[in-house]
Every structure is written in C-alpha cells, then in structure tokens.
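In response to reviewer comment 3 from the previous cycle, which asked for concrete evidence that the modeling workflow produces usable outputs, we include below a single protein chain processed end to end. The sequence was submitted unchanged, and the resulting structure tokens are shown without manual editing.
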Amino acid sequence: MSDKPDVSEVTSFDSSKLKHVETEEKNPLPTEDTINLEKAAERSSKILEGLDPSKLKHAETNVKGMKPDAEDMHQDRAALTAAAVSGFDKSKLKHAETTEKNTLPTKEQIAEEKQN
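The workflow returned the following structure tokens.
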C-alpha cells in the first residue's frame, strides 16, 4: 500500500448532492452596553492607579447601631410572647374532643404476650 491518499475520490465527488446549510455565528460581538461597562471599569481602574495615598484625609467612623446581646434578644422575645398571650381571645376557640388512638396495653395483655 502506498502512503498517498487516493485523489480520484475527491476529484470525482458530485458536490450537487450536498445540502445547503446556513452557518450560525457562535461567538457574537459584544453589545454596546457590554462595551460601555468595560470602558467604565477601565476608567475607574486608571483613576485608582493614579491616586496618591499621601493626599488622602483620615476619616473617623461612627458606629451608630450595635447588635443586641443574647439577654436583650431574650427580653424582646419574652415581651412579644407575653403581649401575644395576654391579648388572645379564648372565646373564638372551638371545643374539641380528644380521642386516644394509641393506648397502653393492660396487665392482662402484657401477661398474654409473655406467654406466647
């Protein structure tokens, strides 16, 4: 066998048997919004690069709200619960009968099971 491919198949191929296919662009160009966002990010980074830290002023932070500790949370929860219970209207409750569906076995039943 020779290492050369058979060129006769390629040259004798009937291209009229091929179907027409529309090509799809898989990698579209960026939109105008995307370009503007990238330009804005680039401008911001250039501004920060040229910033001289020695020209910055010191700023004091003022913490206005502190997180409650566990005791404060417990007191708030207790106050809410007390308000909800004291304002509850019992007259709106309906009467319900309780039926026990899972009864404990009697002494006789236990003794009978021990025998089996």
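The chain has four helices and no strands. We consider this sufficient to address the reviewer's concern, and the full set will be provided in the supplementary archive.
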